C-alpha cells in the first residue's frame, strides 16, 4: 500500500505552497491513495519532519516548497535511511532549480499527476563535507551573494534582494587562489567560482553545469577562472543559457571526486543554497539510494 507524506513549507513562494494543500487534497482523495500533510512551523524543521515520516512508515515524501525545503527533506531521508523511499518536489519556491531537471513541465499540479502514477528513477546524490547535496555545491562568488541576500531581504523582500547582492558581488568580488583536485589530478587556479554539481541550475535559473545528468553517477565541475570585471559583466548573462562554456576562462570536468583547498582566503561552501561551512571541501558521490518521481 502506497503511503504519501506531503511536507509543506507554509512560507515558501510567499504562501504558494500553502495554497496548494487544498488542490492536492481534492485530487488525491479521488485516487484511493493513503496520504497526509505535515506543515513546517519553523526554519530548519523539515529535516526532522522527513525523518519522522519515514520512521512512521511513509515511503513517499513530497516537499511542497522551494529548493530549501527539498534540501532539508533530503537530509532527513538520508539520515532515516533512503532505501525504498521515493522523494518528490512540488515546486513553488523562488528558485526551484532542481525540479527544472526533473520535470519538463513545472506546474505543480501536472507534477502531482506524475506523483500519482508513482514511476520513479534513482538519482545521484553528492556528499559535500558530510552534507547531502542533491543539486549544486558551490564555492566562490555565490557565498557573499547568499549572505547579502539574507541581509537585504529584511529590508527589500523578493527577487530584488538577490539581484542587488549579485550586482554587488559581480562588481567587488576578487578571484581567490585555490588548489582543486579532480579525480587525483591537482590544479592551481585563481577562481571566481567553483561548482560541483548533480543538477544543472543554481541561483534561480543559472545553467551553470549544462552537461550534468542527475543519474550518470558523475559529478560535473565548472570552474570560472579570473576574468576582468568588464568581461565578467558581459559574460554573466550567458550563464542563464549555459553558454558560458565557450568562454576560455571557464573549465568543465566530469569526475567522481573533487577536493577544493584555499591557498589564500577560505571560501564559503554553499550546498543547495545554504551556507554550510568553508573550504577545504571534499565532494564525492553519496552511497544513499535516492529515488525521485520522474516523467
Ligand atoms: N514555518 C516556517 N517559518 C519560517 N521559515 C520556514 C518555515 N518552514 C520552513 N521554513 C524555511 O523556509 C526556507 C525557504 O524555503 P524554500 O527554499 O523552500 O522556499 P522559497 O520560497 O524558495 O524561499 P527562499 O525565497 O528563501 O529561497 C527554508 O530554509 C526553510 O527552513
Characterization of this structure:
- This protein is of the alpha+beta class and 295 residues long.
- It folds into two domains: 3-118, Probable inorganic polyphosphate/atp-NAD kinase, domain 1 (Rossmann fold), CATH 3.40.50.10330; 132-286, Tumour Suppressor Smad4.
- It has helices at 16-19, 21-28, 46-55, 67-80, 97-102, 108-117, 142-153, 159-172, 229-235, and strands at residues 3-8, 34-39, 60-65, 86-91, 120-123, 126-128, 131-133, 136-140, 176-182, 185-197, 219-225, 250-255, 257-262, 268-271, 274-278, 281-285, 290-293.
- The strands form two sheets. Strands 6, 7, 8, 9, 10, 11, 12, 13, 14, 15 and 16 form an eleven-stranded antiparallel sheet that branches.
- Helix 3 crosses helix 4 and helix 7 (142-153) packs across helix 8 (159-172).
- The mean pLDDT is 95.
- Bound molecules: adenosine-5'-triphosphate (ATP).
- Residues 9-13, 40-44, 46, 65-69, 72, 93-95 line the site of adenosine-5'-triphosphate (ATP).
Overall morphology: globular
CATH hierarchy, class of the largest domain: Mainly Beta
Helical residue percent band: 25-40%
Q: Give the mean pLDDT.
A: 95
Please, how many domains? 2
Radius of gyration from the CA trace?
19 Å
**Helix segment count?**
9
Amount of beta strand: 25-35%
User: Do you know the CATH topology of the largest domain?
Assistant: Tumour Suppressor Smad4
Give a brief outline of the structure.
By secondary structure, the chain is α+β, with helices and mostly antiparallel strands.
